[in-house]
Amino acid sequence: MHLGLENKVVLVTGGTKGIGRSITRGFLDEGSIVHFCSRTKADVEASEKQLAKDYPQAKAYGSTVDVADQTQLENWVTSCAEQNGRLDVVVANVSALAIEDTAESWRKAFETDLLGLHVLTQAAIPHLEKTGGNIVTISSVSGRDIDFTTPSPYGPAKAAVIHYTASLARKLAPKGVRANTCSPGNIYINDGVWGNVEKNMPELFKSQMDKNPMGRMGKAEEISDVVCFLASERASFVSGTNVCADGALCQGVQF
Length: 255
Ligand SMILES: NC(=O)c1ccc[n+]([C@@H]2O[C@H](COP(=O)([O-])OP(=O)(O)OC[C@H]3O[C@@H](n4cnc5c(N)ncnc54)[C@H](OP(=O)(O)O)[C@@H]3O)[C@@H](O)[C@H]2O)c1
Hints:
- By secondary structure, this protein is an alpha/beta fold.
- It has a single domain, classed as 3-Layer(aba) Sandwich (Rossmann fold), CATH 3.40.50.720.
- It contains 8 helices and 7 strands.
- Strands 3-2-1-4-5-6-7 form a 7-stranded parallel beta sheet, with helices on both faces.
- Helix 4 links the parallel strand 4 and strand 5.
- Helix 1 crosses helix 8.
- The longest helix has 29 residues.
- The two termini are 26 Å apart.
- The model has no long low-confidence stretch (mean pLDDT 98).
- The site of NADP nicotinamide-adenine-dinucleotide phosphate has 29 residues, from helix 1, strand 2 and helix 6.
- One of its GO terms (molecular function) is oxidoreductase activity, acting on the CH-OH group of donors, NAD or NADP as acceptor.
- Belongs to the short-chain dehydrogenases/reductases (SDR) family.
- Keywords: NADP.
């Protein structure tokens, strides 16, 4: 299937590690121009170097941005749009991964997952309206299941991401802009969240691994493929939906 993402200008938040790194590479594989960000300058520079090596013809630009900082985030969106004269896709991937049930954790989840999403999308929408672009947000199965992360702000924040994305889809449909969510299940990446759990909390790792009906966790590419499809013209009539990519981990029926 040809996705038609060549030369599309794509923003990915949190692109130096984990799922965001795979999403960045997924769009580069499709010939898109990708701008990614994270908070750690050294990681941004190392990622840019690695991408230049792995994709010599590709255009991949990293920036040091904290999505919880409104000014930094707005400036990043504006400068990427100005640099390319357009913006086609925005992927809101970052989460505070706030799984402690404390006031500080709730504050982080609000500022990063929710306010960060609001600021990112509001800055991007005027540009997306010009190109008929789209938004993909990354939620989690924790947004719909009472799982090992509860009680904490993580699940409520992820549920709110799905809700807000669907409401943006309704509002923006007449303007030709789509918005969708992808909700990953457990995604195993060596140097990622589950790789760390495997090393440092083997009992939690085993209990979660045992819950996966496919007998395995997902691969990062199994999320980036869904994201690239949702962002592509092949999904031109898909808006306001939430695609669970979880290997049937969730037990609730999705209607
Ligand atoms: N991994 C899973 O199994 C799983 C399952 C379901 C959903 N998800 C969702 O998938 C998304 C990515 O998770 P992940 O597991 O890939 O995380 P990860 O491996 O920890 O990577 C997170 C990335 O985001 C960056 N980042 C974190 N906070 C940031 C901020 N405030 N501003 C800018 N960049 C920031 C990190 O770099 P810096 O720290 O240097 O900023 C890093 O590049 C999240 O929304 C998560 O909820 C993950």
